[in-house]
């Protein structure tokens, strides 16, 4: 019985991992197509049928590229930091609320915060260890940015946790049957969306890999495998963040089809924002997190605490 | 806990295998001093990459540390609402959040959050 359960559970997790990888592959295809149509040109549409096989061809190409050994880099650290970032992202994907065959985290929110705050270190170490000025600058920027948005992210999340008084992700669905938290905490949910944009280093806030100033930011020195793993973990964390947005604010019941439609809409929105908005300025980014999101989230935390006490 | 342990071992294995696979699959490459030097605009890097960095990044990290500790103190509050007297817990949490908010405003007032001088 025990062995059977364990086996089923491992199969479930493997299916989840493969699902995440394939999802990332098609997210990149979606990104290239959507960016293409935003810039009034066609995206990749030749490989396979309408470009369906393009991401897999890209993966094969990336895997057969040569591995670089930069001079004076701290090679072991340089080699393992993409691996660790990929591990951390996949670990955070364990949080997706399956209703069977998976762990149901009683302290899921804490697990999520642990994973995201560990994710900072991999970017920092990847930038530092590759011994390049661009990479170091990208790593430093990424650390300051991700760290300061993590505070407001945690505080915004706390006010919706206070509403349900529980850390389990599944419980969010039961409390949002009649009204979505998106409407109940209107400015906060939008704050969460843009904080998650900054947390995943996406475009209005992509200072970690500003293509026009630092050539590719913290991953200049990475080639084949390292680059693939960094790329995979970044896009998997985009998918995860949009999943979390659905779960926290838009009433996610993860066994329904509409959950996944909403998820793909939010992750399309990440791409849409990339095609639309120019890059922010770095000091403004810091002011945005420390001088607007943090006070707003703290004040709303006080407000929702009062609301809960009022209704008790 | 054991399940989580098994799964984390599985995930670590998968990602290490993916990294190892690239080493096997990647094409033959030649090592050259100029090619392996870190990427910059010219051939040789102008300055060393291990430079001391701007103090602002460090200060932001220190402020972050304070707030992260405070978040770690807030999180247990959620469960303790069920365990202790509701009214006293309410007073404690209100006082704590007020302190946090006033501390933030104080830092703002002292120009700690300014990025440029």
UniProtKB/TrEMBL annotation, chain A:
Keyword flag Membrane: yes
Superkingdom per UniProt: Eukaryota
GO CC annotations, alphabetized: mitochondrial inner membrane
InterPro entries for the chain: NADH_UbQ_OxRdtase_su1/FPO (IPR001694), NADH_UbQ_OxRdtase_su1_CS (IPR018086)
Catalytic activity field: a ubiquinone + NADH + 5 H(+)(in) = a ubiquinol + NAD(+) + 4 H(+)(out)
UniProt KW Nucleotide-binding keyword: no
Enzyme class: translocase
Topology relative to the membrane: Multi-pass membrane protein
PROSITE patterns per record: COMPLEX1_ND1_2
Location of the protein in the cell: Mitochondrion inner membrane
Transmembrane segments: 6-27, 76-100, 107-127, 147-167, 179-198, 227-250, 257-273, 293-311
Coarse class of the protein's main subcellular location: mitochondrion
BP terms from Gene Ontology: aerobic respiration
EC number(s) reported in the record: 7.1.1.2
Keywords in alphabetical order: Membrane, Mitochondrion, Mitochondrion inner membrane, NAD, Transmembrane, Transmembrane helix, Transport, Ubiquinone
GO molecular function: NADH dehydrogenase (ubiquinone) activity; NADH dehydrogenase activity
Function: Core subunit of the mitochondrial membrane respiratory chain NADH dehydrogenase (Complex I) that is believed to belong to the minimal assembly required for catalysis. Complex I functions in the transfer of electrons from NADH to the respiratory chain. The immediate electron acceptor for the enzyme is believed to be ubiquinone.
Similarity annotation: Belongs to the complex I subunit 1 family.
Cited HAMAP family: NDH1_NuoH
Protein name (database record): NADH-ubiquinone oxidoreductase chain 1
Organism name: Papilio xuthus
UniProtKB/TrEMBL annotation, chain B:
Subcellular location: Membrane; Mitochondrion membrane
KW Endoplasmic reticulum (keyword) present: no
UniProt keyword list: Electron transport, Membrane, Mitochondrion, NAD, Respiratory chain, Translocase, Transmembrane, Transmembrane helix, Transport, Ubiquinone
Keyword ATP-binding: no
Entry-linked InterPro entries: NADH_UbQ/plastoQ_OxRdtase_su3 (IPR000440), NDAH_ubi_oxred_su3_sf (IPR038430)
Ranges annotated as spanning the membrane: 6-25, 55-79, 85-105
GO cellular component assignments: mitochondrial membrane; NADH dehydrogenase complex
Membrane topology: Multi-pass membrane protein
GO molecular function (one): NADH dehydrogenase (ubiquinone) activity
EC number: 7.1.1.2
Domain of life: Eukaryota
Catalysed transformations (reactions): a ubiquinone + NADH + 5 H(+)(in) = a ubiquinol + NAD(+) + 4 H(+)(out)
Major enzyme class: translocase
Function (record text): Core subunit of the mitochondrial membrane respiratory chain NADH dehydrogenase (Complex I) which catalyzes electron transfer from NADH through the respiratory chain, using ubiquinone as an electron acceptor. Essential for the catalytic activity of complex I.
Family membership: Belongs to the complex I subunit 3 family.
Name of the protein this chain belongs to: NADH-ubiquinone oxidoreductase chain 3
Organism: Papilio xuthus (Asian swallowtail butterfly)
Gene behind this protein: ND3
């Amino acid at each position: 019985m025990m062995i059977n359960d364990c086996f089923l559970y491992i199969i479930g997790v493997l299916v989840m991992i493969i699902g995440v990888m394939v999802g990332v592959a098609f997210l990149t295809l979606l990104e290239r197509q959507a960016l293409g149509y935003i810039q009034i040109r066609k995206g990749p549409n030749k490989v396979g049928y309408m470009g369906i096989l393009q991401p897999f061809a890209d993966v094969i190409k990336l895997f057969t590229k040569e591995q670089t050994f930069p001079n004076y880099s701290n090679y072991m650290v340089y080699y393992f930091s993409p691996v660790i970032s990929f591990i951390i992202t996949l670990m955070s994907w364990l949080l997706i609320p399956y209703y069977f065959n998976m762990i149901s985290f009683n302290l899921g929110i804490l697990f999520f915060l642990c994973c995201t705050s560990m994710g900072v270190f991999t970017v920092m170490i990847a930038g530092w260890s590759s011994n390049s000025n661009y990479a170091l600058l990208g790593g430093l920027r990424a650390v300051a940015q991700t760290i300061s948005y993590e505070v407001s992210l945690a505080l915004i999340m706390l006010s919706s946790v206070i509403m349900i008084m529980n850390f389990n992700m599944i419980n969010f669905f039961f409390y949002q049957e009649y009204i979505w938290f998106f409407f109940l905490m209107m400015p906060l949910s939008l704050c969460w969306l843009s904080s998650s944009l900054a947390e995943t280093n996406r475009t209005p806030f992509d200072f970690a890999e500003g293509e026009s100033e630092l050539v590719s930011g913290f991953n200049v020195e990475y080639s084949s495998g390292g680059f693939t793993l960094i790329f995979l973990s970044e896009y998997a964390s985009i998918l995860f963040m949009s999943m979390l947005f659905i779960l926290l604010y838009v009433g996610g019941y993860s066994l329904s089809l509409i959950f996944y439609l909403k998820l793909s809409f939010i992750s399309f929105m990440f791409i849409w924002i990339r095609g639309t908005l120019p890059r922010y300025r770095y000091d403004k980014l810091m002011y945005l997190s420390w001088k607007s999101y943090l006070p707003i989230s703290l004040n709303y935390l006080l407000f929702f605490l009062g609301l809960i006490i009022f209704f008790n | 806990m054991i399940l989580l342990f098994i799964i984390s071992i599985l995930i670590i294995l998968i990602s290490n295998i993916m990294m190892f696979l690239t080493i096997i699959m990647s094409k033959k490459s030649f090592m050259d001093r100029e090619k392996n030097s870190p990427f910059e605009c010219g051939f040789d890097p102008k300055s060393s990459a291990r430079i001391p960095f701007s103090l602002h990044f460090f200060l932001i990290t220190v402020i972050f540390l304070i707030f992260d500790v405070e978040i770690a103190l807030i999180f247990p509050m959620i469960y303790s609402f069920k365990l202790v007297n509701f009214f006293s817990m309410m007073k404690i949490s209100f006082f704590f959040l007020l302190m946090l908010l006033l501390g933030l405003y104080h830092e703002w007032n002292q120009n700690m959050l300014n990025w440029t001088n």
